[in-house]
From TrEMBL, chain A:
TM spans (from-to): 24-42, 163-181
EC number: 2.3.1.50
Protein name per its UniProtKB record: Serine palmitoyltransferase 1
GO BP term, example: ceramide biosynthetic process
Automatic annotation (TrEMBL), chain B:
Pathway noted in the entry: Sphingolipid metabolism; Lipid metabolism; sphingolipid metabolism
Species this chain originates from: Accipiter nisus (Eurasian sparrowhawk)
Gene Ontology biological process: ceramide biosynthetic process; sphingosine biosynthetic process
Subcellular location, principal: endoplasmic reticulum
Regions crossing the membrane: 37-56, 425-443, 455-475
InterPro entries from the UniProt entry: Aminotrans_II_pyridoxalP_BS, Aminotransferase_I/II_large, AON_synthase_class-II, PyrdxlP-dep_Trfase, PyrdxlP-dep_Trfase_major, PyrdxlP-dep_Trfase_small
Official protein name in the record: serine C-palmitoyltransferase
Signal peptide bounds: none
C-alpha cells in the first residue's frame, strides 16, 4: 500500500514538474483548446429544422399558399359498400332485410343461440341486477363477478388454466399479439390471416414473414432460413422471440390449418403458436372445443388460443385462454383490456348461459357439421361458381369460376346473384374487404353461413335457388 | 391523511386564469401546483427503497432462499427463447404485486352512487386472492365513470333495454356492411347526430376501437398528426397504425402547437420537402389523467389559420360539460361545425358501451365505406343501443321530463363543491375547476396503499388509482 502511495505521489510530482518545464506556447495552446471545448459544451445545439434561409414574409406566403387535401375524398353514391342492408327486427333464422322476409344464410349464428329463450332470460336477470354498462375499465371497478365467472367457465370448458375476456371481438387478437411480440421479434403468419390479425401484427412492429396458405413446406423453408440467420448471430437469436400465428378455421378461405404438422414444427424450431379460433370455437371437435379437440392435440401445446364470442356464443366480445404464465401478462399489457371499458354484464351473462347450453347439448355440433356436409355437396354442381371451404365448415365462400376481367365487374355480377336470391327469400351477403388495406386480398365471393336452425328443405331450397340465380345472371 | 397534508405545506402555485377577450366567453381556471421539494425527494427515495428491496428479493428467489410464486414456463418449452425479458417483469413481481389489491376489485352490484364489493383476502402477500364470500355493502362509489348516473338497474332506461333485449336478443353475429345493420343502429345514429348538432354520425361497438380503427382510415402516409402529450392509448395506437408522421406538442400548450404547425407547413415533409397532404390535430375534451380541459377556442383559431383538421375525443366530456350536456364545444359556446371530427364514447355519461363519430355527411359516408370497424367488426348489441337512445333522449329532454337537465346541472354543482371543499382541506388538486375528474395527489407509494385500505375499512369510500410515469400516485373521483 505504501509503495503504491509512493508510486502515486511520484506520478503527481512528475506532472507538476512537467507543467513547470513546458514551453509557454504549449501551455497557451492547451488553454485555448480547453476554453473552446467549454464553449462548445455550453453553446446552443444546432437544430437542422430551424436552419432556414426564409424570411418571415416568405414563411407567411408559404403558409398562405399551402392547400391541404380535403379531409376525406368524396364517395360515389352508388358505391357498393355505402348502402347497407337494413335489418328490421332481430337477425335470427327468419330475418327481415330491406322489408322482405328471408331465411338467414348470412349471420354467423352457427348454434342458433341468438334468440334462445334461456340465453335471453339470463341476460334479463343480469340487466335487472347490474344495469347495462360497467362505467369503467377492468382495473378501476369495472370487474364484475359475472366477468370472473365467465373467465372461469371458459377456462374450464377449454381445459386451460386461465382465460381473459375482452369487450370486443376484433380487439381480442389485435391486442393479444402486440402484448407478446415486440420490435425485433419474428412472426410467421399465414397469408390468408384475417384483418384483425394483420392489425395486431402491424401494432406489434415485429418482422412479419408470410407463408403460403396452409403450405407447411413453405413455412419450413422460412424457418430453416431463419435458423441459418440465427447461426450467424447467436447472441441476437437468444433474445429474439418467434411466433407462428394461424387460424383454426380460416374466415377468408373456409379451410382448417394442419395443426399436427404445426406442432411438430413448433418443437423442431422452437417457435410458439398462437391460434385464432373465432370460427372453429363451438363448431369443431366432439364437444365444440375447437380445432385442438378436432385433431386430438393436447391443449397445452398451443401457447395461446384466442376466439371471439360473437359467432357460436351469439354474444359480444372475445377471450384468450391458455396457461396462466401466458394469459396473466395480458392483464397489464393487453391494450384492449387495460384501456377500455369492460364487457357489459348482460352480454357476459348471455355468454355464460350459451356455454351452459353448449355443455348440455354436445350433439348440436354433429348436427351442424352434417348440415354443412349436405349443403356443401348440394352446391357442388353449380356451373359458374366454385365452392371454397371444407365440407364441415359452416362459413363457405362461393367464388366465380371465371373472372369477368376486373374486380369491380365481378363484384357487380355477384351482387346481382345475391339480389336475385334475396328477392326469392334467401338472405345472402358478399364477403366484404377493405381492398387497399388487405395484405393478400381474397377474390370477391358470396358468403354462405350454415346454422343448426336451418332445416334440410331450406338448405336444398337455398342450393337450388343459387343454381337458378347464377344461370339467370350469367346468361 | 391529516399528517400527509401537513407535510404538503406548499406555497408555490401555478394558476392560469385566461380571459382572452373574444376567444373565451367564460373564465378558464386550471391549476397544476408544483410538487413541494420535500415531498418529491421523499417520493423518489421511496421508489429507490422499493427497487433495492426488489433486487434483494429477486436475489433471494434465485438462490432459492425464498419460494418463487409466480407462474413459470412449461418444462417442455424451457429451451425456447424466454417470452418475457427479465426487467419487464421486475416491476410486476416486486412493485405491482405488493399493492395489487388496490386494482381489479370486483363489484357485484350496479355501479351507481353506492356499490357492493366482494371481499377478498390474500394469505400470500397478493400472489393469489381468495373470496371470503362476504359482500361489503353500500360503499360510496367515487371510482366508476358514471357521471350522470344512467347506470341504473331500474327506471326507464333499464325497462327499454329489457324490452329490446327480449325482442332482438343480445348479439348481432355480423358486421355492419354485411348483415349486422339493424334499424336500431340507424335510429341511434340519427339521434346522435341531432344531439351533437352535426349533419351525420356513425356508432361503433367499442370506444377504444373507434379511435384505433378510424384514424387510419382518415390519414395515411404523407399526412401529419399533431397529438397532445397526454393523449389516451387509443389515440396513440390509431395514430401509429395509420402510418402518418406523428409530432407531439406539450400538453394544452398553444404556443407549442402553433410552432409545430408553422414549421410543418413551411418546411414540408422531412427530407423530401414535399408539402404535407393534410394535418390532423388530435386532442381530448377532458384529459382523464390531469383533469384538464382542452383550450378549444384557441385550438380552433389555430386550426382555421393553418388550414388543418381537428379530431376531438370527447370520451369524458360528452354529457358531463356544457349547460345541456352537449360536451366541451357547448361549454365554450362554440359551433360544432368548427370541429371536423367529433368522436366520443357511450361508456361514461350514458351508462352503455361503444363509441361514435360525428361530422359532415361526406365524412360519415366515407367512414361507412372505409372504416375498418364497419367492414370487419361486429356492430353494437341492441339492448346497449337502446340504453344509449333512452339516456340521450333523457338528457335532451325529449322524453318529456327535465330529469336529464337536472342531472347535468347537479353534476356541475357537485364538481365545484367537491373541488372547493378538498382545496379548503388543503389537498393538492390538479386540473380545471369544472372538470368532474379530480386527481388528488398523494405522491408517496407507501401512503397510497395505506390510504386505500384505511378508507375501505371505514366503509365510506372506494377510490381508484393508478401509477404515473413520473412517479406520482393519484386518486381519482368521477
Amino acid at each position: 500500500m505504501a509503495a503504491a502511495g509512493m508510486g502515486q505521489q511520484w506520478v503527481l510530482v512528475e506532472m507538476v514538474q512537467a507543467f513547470y518545464e513546458a514551453p509557454a506556447y504549449h501551455l497557451i495552446l492547451e488553454g485555448i483548446l480547453i476554453l473552446w471545448i467549454i464553449r462548445l459544451l455550453f453553446s446552443k445545439t444546432y437544430k437542422l429544422q430551424e436552419r432556414s434561409d426564409l424570411t418571415p414574409k416568405e414563411k407567411e406566403e408559404l403558409i398562405e399558399e399551402w392547400q391541404p387535401e380535403p379531409l376525406v375524398p368524396p364517395v360515389p353514391k352508388d358505391h357498393p359498400a355505402l348502402n347497407y342492408n337494413i335489418v328490421s327486427g332481430p337477425p335470427t333464422h327468419i330475418i327481415t332485410v330491406n322489408g322482405k322476409e328471408c331465411i338467414n344464410f348470412a349471420s354467423f349464428n352457427f348454434l342458433g343461440l341468438l334468440d334462445n329463450e334461456k340465453v335471453k332470460s339470463a341476460a334479463q336477470a343480469s340487466l335487472k341486477k347490474y344495469g347495462v354498462g360497467t362505467c369503467g375499465p377492468r382495473g378501476f371497478y369495472g370487474t364484475f363477478d359475472v366477468h370472473l365467472e365467465l373467465e372461469e367457465r371458459l377456462a374450464k370448458f377449454m381445459r386451460t388454466e386461465e382465460a381473459i375476456i375482452y369487450s370486443y371481438g376484433f380487439a381480442t387478437i389485435a391486442s393479444a399479439i402486440p402484448a407478446y411480440s415486440k420490435r425485433g421479434d419474428i412472426v410467421f403468419v399465414d397469408e390468408a390471416a384475417c384483418f384483425a390479425i394483420q392489425k395486431g401484427l402491424q401494432a406489434s412492429r415485429s418482422n412479419i414473414k408470410l407463408f403460403k396458405h396452409n403450405d407447411m413446406a413453405d413455412l419450413e423453408r422460412l424457418l430453416k432460413e431463419q435458423e441459418t440467420e440465427d447461426q450467424k448471430n447467436p447472441r441476437k437469436a437468444r433474445v429474439t422471440r418467434r411466433f407462428i400465428v394461424v387460424e383454426g378455421l380460416y374466415m377468408n378461405t373456409g379451410d382448417v390449418c394442419p395443426l399436427p404438422e404445426l406442432i411438430k414444427l413448433k418443437y423442431k424450431y422452437k417457435v410458439r403458436i398462437f391460434l385464432e379460433e373465432s370460427l372453429s370455437f363451438g363448431v369443431l371437435g366432439e364437444h365444440g372445443r375447437g380445432i385442438t379437440e378436432h385433431f386430438g392435440i393436447n391443449i397445452d401445446d398451443i401457447d395461446l388460443i384466442s376466439a371471439n364470442m360473437e359467432n357460436s356464443l351469439a354474444s359480444i366480445g372475445g377471450f384468450c385462454c391458455g396457461r396462466s404464465f401466458i394469459i396473466d401478462h395480458q392483464r397489464l399489457s393487453g391494450q384492449g383490456y387495460c384501456f377500455s371499458a369492460s364487457l357489459p354484464p348482460l352480454l357476459a351473462a348471455a355468454a355464460i348461459e350459451a356455454l351452459n347450453i353448449m355443455e348440455d347439448n354436445p350433439d348440436i355440433f354433429q348436427t351442424l357439421r352434417a348440415k354443412c356436409e349436405r349443403i356443401h355437396k348440394a352446391l357442388q354442381g353449380i356451373s359458374g361458381l366454385k365452392v371454397v371451404g371444407e365440407s364441415f365448415s359452416p362459413a363457405l365462400h362461393l367464388q366465380l369460376e371465371e373472372s369477368c376481367g376486373s374486380r369491380e365487374d365481378d363484384v357487380k355480377l355477384l351482387k346481382r346473384v345475391v339480389d336475385y336470391c334475396m328477392d326469392s327469400g334467401i338472405a345472402l351477403t358478399q364477403a366484404r374487404y377493405l381492398e387497399k388495406e388487405e395484405k393478400c386480398l381474397p377474390p370477391p365471393s358470396i358468403r354462405v353461413v350454415i346454422t343448426v336452425e336451418q332445416t334440410e328443405q331450406e338448405l336444398d331450397k337455398a342450393a337450388s335457388l343459387l343454381k337458378e340465380a347464377v344461370q339467370s345472371v350469367l346468361n | 391523511l391529516k399528517n400527509v397534508n401537513e407535510m404538503l405545506n406548499c406555497t408555490k402555485f401555478v394558476n392560469q386564469i385566461v380571459h382572452n377577450g373574444g376567444l373565451y366567453k367564460r373564465p378558464f381556471n386550471e391549476a397544476f401546483e408544483e410538487t413541494p421539494m420535500l415531498v418529491a425527494v421523499l417520493t423518489y427515495v421511496g421508489y429507490g427503497v422499493l427497487t433495492l428491496f426488489g433486487y434483494l428479493r429477486d436475489f433471494m428467489r434465485q438462490w432459492k432462499i425464498e419460494k418463487c410464486q409466480n407462474a413459470t414456463e412449461r418444462a417442455e418449452q424451457k429451451d425456447f427463447v424466454p417470452l418475457y425479458q427479465d426487467f419487464e417483469n421486475f416491476y410486476n413481481r416486486n412493485l405491482y404485486t405488493r399493492i395489487r389489491d388496490s386494482w381489479n376489485r370486483p363489484i357485484c352490484s350496479v355501479p351507481g352512487a353506492k356499490v357492493d364489493m366482494m371481499e377478498r383476502v390474500s394469505h400470500d402477500y397478493n400472489w393469489t386472492f381468495t373470496y371470503t364470500g362476504r359482500v361489503i355493502k353500500d360503499i360510496i362509489n367515487m371510482g366508476s365513470y358514471n357521471y350522470l348516473g344512467f347506470a341504473q338497474k331500474a327506471g326507464t332506461c333499464q325497462e327499454a333495454a329489457a324490452e329490446v333485449l327480449s325482442q332482438y336478443g343480445a348479439g348481432v353475429c355480423s358486421t355492419r356492411q354485411e348483415m349486422g345493420n339493424l334499424d336500431k343502429h340507424e335510429e341511434l345514429e340519427e339521434l346522435v347526430a341531432r344531439f351533437l348538432g352535426v349533419e351525420s354520425a356513425m356508432a361503433y361497438g367499442m370506444g377504444f376501437a373507434t379511435n384505433s380503427m378510424n384514424i387510419p382510415a382518415l390519414v395515411g402516409k404523407g399526412c401529419l398528426i399533431l397529438s397532445d402529450e397526454l393523449n389516451h392509448a387509443s389515440l396513440v395506437l390509431g395514430a401509429r397504425l395509420s402510418g402518418a408522421t406523428i409530432r407531439i406538442f406539450k400538453h394544452n400548450n398553444m404556443q407549442s402547437l402553433e410552432k409545430l404547425l408553422k414549421d410543418a407547413i413551411v418546411h414540408g415533409q422531412p427530407r423530401t420537402r414535399r408539402p404535407w397532404k393534410k394535418i390532423l390535430i388530435l386532442v381530448e375534451g377532458i384529459y382523464s389523467m390531469e383533469g384538464s380541459i382542452v383550450r378549444l377556442p384557441e385550438v380552433i383559431a389555430l386550426k382555421k389559420k393553418y388550414k388543418s383538421y381537428l379530431y376531438l375525443d370527447e370520451a369524458h366530456s360528452i354529457g358531463a360539460l356544457g349547460p345541456s350536456g352537449r360536451g366541451v364545444v357547448e361549454y365554450f359556446g362554440l359551433s360544432p361545425e368548427d370541429v371536423d371530427v367529433m368522436m366520443g364514447t357511450f361508456t361514461k355519461s350514458f351508462g352503455a358501451a361503444g363509441g361514435y363519430i360525428g361530422g359532415k355527411k361526406e365524412l360519415i359516408d366515407y367512414l361507412r365505406t372505409y372504416s375498418h370497424s364497419a367492414v370487419y367488426a361486429t356492430s353494437l348489441s341492441p339492448p346497449v343501443v337502446e340504453q344509449v337512445i333512452t339516456s340521450m333522449k333523457c338528457i335532451m329532454g325529449e322524453d318529456g321530463t327535465t330529469v336529464g337537465k337536472a342531472r347535468v346541472q347537479q353534476l356541475a354543482e357537485n364538481t365545484r363543491y367537491f373541488r372547493r371543499r378538498l382545496k379548503e382541506m388543503g389537498f393538492i388538486i390538479y386540473g380545471n375547476e369544472d372538470s368532474p375528474v379530480v386527481p388528488l395527489m398523494l405522491y408517496m407509494p407507501g401512503s397510497n396503499f395505506t390510504t386505500t385500505c384505511h378508507v375501505l375499512k371505514i366503509g365510506l369510500f372506494v377510490f381508484s388509482f393508478y401509477l404515473y410515469v413520473k412517479c406520482i400516485y393519484v386518486l381519482k373521483r368521477s
